[in-house]
Design goal:
With about 350 residues, this protein is an alpha+beta fold. It has two domains: about 160 residues, Diaminopimelate Epimerase, Chain A, domain 1 (Roll); about 150 residues, Diaminopimelate Epimerase, Chain A, domain 1. The protein contains six helices and 18 strands. It starts with 10 loop residues before the first strand and ends with a strand.
Length: about 350
């Protein structure tokens, strides 16, 4: 093909295709994006969004749920080693990605990326783990790559992440200061997180009871058996909600995401709790804001575990297994500190280089 100004590539990008429990990403360093016109100007956020849109297409690009971009010189949080930039496949920036931050952590280890911030390069902490402090739009996130974990493989590493506190989701229903900010099973008023959404006018339902949780991003959790019990969902017929794997969730999720209740949309999780009290395990499907249904969502799994504990389907201070189509994530919510910890895999699929 004859190269013209229209077809001439503008950038060259070395990247890794990665996934965390089936939630897939491209991961690259912002300072490794090369301008092919010879300019050394720093790549802008607008350009990163344009690059993401071009590469995210499943047929015409690499295909992924989010782009995870590494900046080894964060400028906002002085305590951070790195900054993580998350851009959804629709080109919009996200505040946080729980599965993406594990892949971010593994990429740093695999590529020996040193921090240029004043805080220096991550060091070993008690227990022999490396502690990586990562700046995100949702705040500081700390990851602990389990370099010697027994489940590790040549291309897979288990990563533990401190996801910070579970928070009351601020909606347009209440004033921002009406409830305490941090969720607490014992002290938080149920009105702060249980909400019945009415007048949906959908074939499957007209109203739904939802549990609202913030993990730095908004989550709307729908417990199927609870809503069947309330008469909001049917357990039989073409619109049955008794089998999560077969349930049509797109229309419900899309309607919920557009409601004026939410200040900036929401991620929607559909959860089955059969035998959860015995096993501390729930099954979930997620419809993400800006990405649609994905095989897994890290912050979503945290939101589901917290919601399951708030509703007494699972036990606090024990690991809750959240099973999603892409695999299991282990979530623990501390009653002492309020912190949520997530442990799960980060897998490198392949490494490559692309011009576009």
């Amino acid at each position: 093909m004859i190269e013209t100004e229209i077809t001439k590539p503008k950038y060259e990008i070395p990247f890794s295709k990665m996934h965390g429990a089936g939630n897939d990403f491209i991961v690259f360093e912002n300072n490794k994006v090369k301008r092919l016109d010879g300019s050394e100007n720093e790549i802008t956020l607008k350009e990163l969004k344009e690059i993401t849109l071009k590469l995210s297409h499943r047929k015409l690009g690499v295909g992924f749920d989010q782009a995870i971009i590494i900046n080894n010189n964060p400028k906002v949080l002085k305590s951070a080693h790195y900054e993580m930039i998350v851009i959804n496949s629709d080109g919009e920036q996200a505040s946080m990605c729980g599965n993406g931050v594990r892949c971010f952590s593994k990429y740093i280890i695999d590529n020996c990326i040193e921090s240029k911030s004043l805080n220096g390069t991550p060091k070993l902490v008690d227990g022999g783990d490396i502690e990586q402090k990562i700046e995100t739009l949702a705040g500081l996130v700390i990851t602990y790559p389990k370099i010697t974990h027994h489940l590790n493989q040549y291309n897979l590493m288990m990563i533990k992440v401190n996801m910070n506190n579970a928070l009351v989701l601020k909606t347009n229903q209440y004033k921002d200061d009406e409830f305490e900010n941090v969720l607490n099973k014992k002290t938080t008023n149920e009105k702060a997180y249980i909400y019945t959404i009415k007048d949906l006018s959908l074939p499957q339902c007209d109203q739904l009871e939802c549990v609202l949780v913030s993990m730095g991003n908004p989550h709307c959790v729908i417990f199927l058996e609870r809503n069947i019990e309330l008469g909001n969902l049917s357990s039989t017929g073409v619109d049955s909600a008794s089998d999560l794997s077969m349930m049509k969730i797109d229309e419900i999720a899309t309607k919920l995401q557009k409601l004026p209740l939410f200040k900036d949309g929401c991620n929607v999780e559909f959860v089955s709790t059969n035998n959860s009290k015995l096993t501390n395990r729930v099954i979930s499907r997620v419809f993400e804001r800006g990405a649609g249904e994905t095989l897994a969502c890290g912050t979503g799994a945290c939101g589901v575990a917290v919601a399951s504990i708030l509703m007494s389907y699972c036990t606090q201070d024990k690991e809750v297994t959240v099973s999603m189509p892409g695999g299991d994530l282990l979530i623990q919510w501390s009653s002492e500190t309020g912190e949520v910890f997530k442990t799960g895999p980060a897998c490198t699929v392949f490494n490559s280089n692309i011009k576009l």
